[in-house]
Design brief:
Layout (H helix, E strand, L loop, with lengths): L1 H66 L1 H14 L10 H7 L4 H12 L17 E8 L4 E2 L8 H15 L21 H12 L15 H4 L26 H7 L3 E2 L7 E2 L5 H9 L8 H6 L1 H14 L11 H10 L8 H7 E2 L6 E10 L2 E10 L4 E7 L1
Parallel strand pairs: 2-3, 4-5
Antiparallel strand pairs: 1-6, 6-7, 7-8
Amino acid sequence: MSRRRNKTERGVALIMVLGTLALVGAVIGEFQYTSRVDLELAFNGRDAVQAEYNALSALRLRAMLLRHARRLDSGAAAAGAALGIDPQMMPPIGQLIEMIPVDCGLMSAIISETAGEEAPAGDESGGEVFAGECTATSVSEHAKISINVLARSSQGASQQVSTFLLGLLSNPALERHFDKDDRSGSHAESPVELVSAITDWIDVDNNQSVNPAADEDRLYEYLKDSYRAKNAPFDSLAELQLVHGISDELYDLLKEHVSIYSDNTQIELATASVEQIFVGLMGSLRQGSRFDELAIHPGTGLLFQAITEMRQLGGAGFAFLKVPTLVALIQQFGLDSLIDTNAVQQLFTDRQNATWYTLYAEGRVGNAGRRIRAVFQASEAQFYYVRIE
């Protein structure tokens, strides 16, 4: 009997020991897991901070280049003159800035060269000052459509901007936006009505542009959350979403082609993208010409192929794209029957402003990344908008 009791006690003791070991093992495993998670979070937090500062460094270097764009232009002109290069063959300042890359490798090389120091022993970064990756690019606001100009009393200026917008919105692919209601239960019937709604949002009166006898606020009074037209310039592009007829999808298209910062009525050709040039050409169609005729014309593809080649360091012969060159190409490819070349010369300009830019910067270290979007005024060296994501 005593022997059986001893066996039972030993069995209970063994179970208790095994249970204790299992519990201790579980606690240790949980501790190891949480410690590992905390360590990874710490690494990611460190990398996120480094990525943000990398992006900020690239952003500031791009801003510095834009701030001193005129000096770069003068220096390039002087170097070209010393080498006997025709000034007409020198790239415009807008294209010159785009040719200068801004990334972490370039910044590390500049700082290392300036400091004159070698990488310390055991440095796994290979001597790079900026661990990880970063880039920064800029887009000129002077190559976009300045919608705040619509509120000007000058009929010629507002009419020119209206022409740009009508050219952009007359794309047949956008017709569905004028046929069905948006989430507010309304829509503009035509591009003309939509451009008029944008004008009515910022002009000082309360009358509709297309129908002076009608009240412009009636378009917004019957919404679920009613409001009134602002009757003042746009303070942000996001305000466009409040305008009658602009759906979310249409806003995503417009925000890439319009600006609230520049007050120009012409597109700066040197910094305009191929898409922005096409928008300008749509606004230059002759009376009676249609968008689809321009789209299917065999010369259109050849024209934009030539423009793309010129953007690649001037293409063959180093001929840079300027307004007279654009007009000559339109005539060469037989597009002058559809496009009014006089209107092209009025809508595009070779004048360089180099004032307002939207900057995009990105930094990445390990698994962490940061993106920055900023609006920069080069003449004042001031940032008017910064968003970090």
